[in-house]
Specification:
By secondary structure, the chain is an alpha/beta fold. It folds into 2 domains: 119 residues, 3-Layer(aba) Sandwich (Rossmann fold), CATH 3.40.50.300; 73 residues, no CATH class. The protein is built from 9 helices and 5 strands, in the order βαβααααββαααβα. A 5-stranded parallel sheet has the order 2-3-1-4-5, with helices on both faces. The structure holds adenosine-5'-triphosphate. Adenosine-5'-triphosphate binds next to α1 and α9.
Length: 198
């Protein structure tokens, strides 16, 4: 098995690259989806959050009130760290389970937005970083419905491209049209993934 950690700033094109890798046969594990599943109704994750942050972070029917929780942790790094300590270990455990369940010889890609921030680079055989000029990311995020101010604030709250480059085995640039990204994914696959699976 080859384990690839895929990361990049918000709106850089991680999901797009993950989809291109899936087309080439990779098994994709999406950390954002696992994070949502980790706090779904009935989970120990949601119970731990309710205990830590109080009933104000739950909706009337007992699900997570994401907006209320975001308001609590947004300006409070200690609260953010307490939330991360609940969610991240659960996401990692589930990601490891899914990777272990993939057929032998699989190429497993984990899309981990905060790979650098959470110090996970060493968990992967290859770290693939997607980089896109911040203003292009803002424009693409605005097209997706985010305000420009929110997009810039989220970009500023994450690791820098330089920090991501420092742990990257390969960097893909996504400033151009989708075909250029697809060509880079093809090259990554033939130069790095195929040799690693032999
Ligand atoms: P997030 O961090 O929010 O999960 P992401 O890094 O997964 O985002 P994508 O969702 O792949 O990024 O891309 C962000 C947006 O930009 C999407 O709407 C996507 O369709 C669009 N996009 C990605 N690459 C390109 C491109 N080369 N040209 C134009 N639009 C693109």
């Amino acid at each position: 098995m080859v384990k690839i950690g895929l990361t990049g700033g918000i709106g850089s094109g991680k999901s797009t690259v993950a989809a291109l890798l899936a087309e080439r046969g990779a098994v994709v594990v999406d950390a954002d989806r696992l994070a949502r599943e980790a706090v779904a109704p009935g989970t120990t994750g949601l119970a731990a959050i309710a205990e830590e942050f109080g009933p104000g972070v739950l909706t009337g029917d007992g699900a997570l009130d994401r907006a209320a929780l975001a308001a609590v942790v947004f300006a409070d790094p200690a609260a953010r760290a307490r939330l991360d300590a609940i969610v991240h270990p659960r996401v990692r455990a589930r990601a490891a389970e899914l990777a272990a369940a993939a057929p032998p010889g699989s190429v497993v890609v984990q899309d981990v937005p905060l790979l650098v921030e959470t110090g996970q680079a060493a968990s992967f055989d290859l770290v693939l970083v997607v980089q896109t000029d911040p203003e292009t990311r803002v424009a693409r995020l605005v097209d997706r419905g985010l305000s420009a101010a929110d997009a810039r604030a989220r970009i500023a709250s994450q690791a820098t491209d330089e920090q991501r480059r420092a742990v990257a085995d390969v960097v893909l640039r996504n400033d151009g049209p989708p075909e250029e990204l697809a060509a880079q994914v093809d090259r990554f696959w033939s130069e790095h993934v195929e040799p690693a699976t032999c």
